[in-house]
Amino acid sequence: MAIKKLSDIPYSEITKKAEYLDRRAFLAAAGIAGAGLVASNFLPEMLSPKSAFANTKLNFTKSDLSTHGEDLTPEKDVTTYNNFYEFGTDKDDPYKNATKFRTSPWTVSIEGLCDKPQKLGVDGIVKLDSNGLEERVYRMRCVEGWSMVIPWIGIPLSAVIKAAQPQSKAKYVAFQTIYDPKQMEGQQRQILDWPYVEGLRMDEAMNPLSILAVGMYGESLPNQDGAPIRLVVPWKYGFKGIKSIVKIKFVEKEPPTTWNRMAPEEYGFYSNVNPNVDHPRWSQATERRIGEFRRRKTLMFNGYGDFVASMYSGMDLKKYY
Ligand SMILES: Nc1nc2c(c(=O)[nH]1)N[C@H]1C(S)=C(S)[C@@H](COP(=O)(O)O)O[C@H]1N2
Ligand SMILES: [Mo]
């Protein structure tokens, strides 16, 4: 590629090929001096996502289960490069379109096969864990081939499950996002089968790494990242991390999941990060850490095998992808 001037690079090239967050690295690789400065003048609106930033400071302790030794992804990237189809399918749609989303009051219904079903606000859910909020730094890997390192704040999902006292018949936990097409313009169109739903097997849900997040980077969750409460399951592809949850239900049978419904050949129920199982349309062997230019090797279970591999011993992970 013999690119000489910034104006030689079509806008679409920057946004699509370099996936705009990496535009500086892309421009630098294309040999353009001072690219960072020029790029920020060139794309001003993408650099001011403040309107959708949350700003409630949270009190939390730091968890021993955090991933250590990796640089955090800049907060600006985590809040402007999102998948949240309820607010549009482009990466910068959620932070632009979710600014007015009402996350208070909010009720989560915990129901199904349990002895203590309950309807709680976000504060009520957080209180179910007597240890209070904790920060968990996790690697996150999207099935599209990019990854981030995010300091989530939340509580173990296990605390909520224990409080609800599931019955022995409850083998899975099903989750549902709010359905409110008036607020979520994406839900006015048949992009996905609304509302967004996800599920975990009971042992996966009880695993200490599974958390319900209410914040990140020291503050409450920005709307575009799934406010006021979302699931974070770091050994699975990002789409398992269902956002803006209103229902948690204990069920006997494997529950439907949105991406499996959409494209069953491409997205299975388990969706563990697995570099040995390609997506039918692309390899999963490597990933691009947002902010970096060269691709990294994708790790089995996203690097969390010590915590989770035993849950899948004896399972054929090519069959149960
Ligand atoms: N309700 C809902 N939850 C969702 C999605 C969505 O479109 N709707 N996208 C998923 C996908 S594909 C990913 S990669 C993560 C992205 O989370 P983030 O934008 O906070 O990084 O959210 C997941 N949760
Ligand atoms: Mo994703």
How would you describe the overall organization of this protein?
- This protein has 321 residues and is an alpha+beta fold.
- It has a single domain (6-311), classed as Sulfite Oxidase, Chain A, domain 2 (Alpha-Beta Complex), CATH 3.90.420.10.
- Helices cover 18% and strands 20% of the residues.
- The strands form 2 sheets. Strands 1, 4, 5, 8, 9, 10, 12 and 13 form an 8-stranded mixed sheet that branches.
- The longest helix has 8 residues, at 35-42.
- Bound molecules: the ligand Nc1nc2c(c(=O)[nH]1)N[C@H]1C(S)=C(S)[C@@H](COP(=O)(O)O)O[C@H]1N2 and molybdenum atom.
- Molybdenum atom is lined by residues 83, 142-144, 238-239.
- The ligand Nc1nc2c(c(=O)[nH]1)N[C@H]1C(S)=C(S)[C@@H](COP(=O)(O)O)O[C@H]1N2 binds next to loops.
Q: How many β-strand stretches?
A: 13
Broad shape: globular
What's the architecture, going by CATH? Alpha-Beta Complex
The name of the CATH superfamily reads Oxidoreductase, molybdopterin-binding domain
Element-by-element helix/strand order: HHHEHHEEHEEHEEHEEEEHEEH
Instruction: Return the CATH class.
Output: Alpha Beta
Structure keywords:
single chain, 321 residues, alpha+beta, Sulfite Oxidase, Chain A, domain 2, five-stranded mixed beta sheet, 10 helices, 18% helix, binds ligand MTE, binds molybdenum atom
Short description:
The protein is of the alpha+beta class and 321 residues long.
List the helices and strands and how they pair.
Elements: H1 11-17, H2 23-29, H3 35-42, E1 61-62, H4 75-78, H5 93-97, E2 108-112, E3 118-120, H6 122-127, E4 134-141, E5 146-156, H7 157-164, E6 172-177, E7 197-201, H8 202-206, E8 211-216, E9 219-220, E10 230-232, E11 245-251, H9 258-262, E12 286-289, E13 296-297, H10 305-308
Parallel strand pairs: 1-4, 2-11, 5-12
Antiparallel strand pairs: 2-3, 4-5, 5-8, 6-7, 6-11, 8-9, 8-10, 12-13
Molybdenum atom (MO) binds at residues 83, 142-144, 238-239.
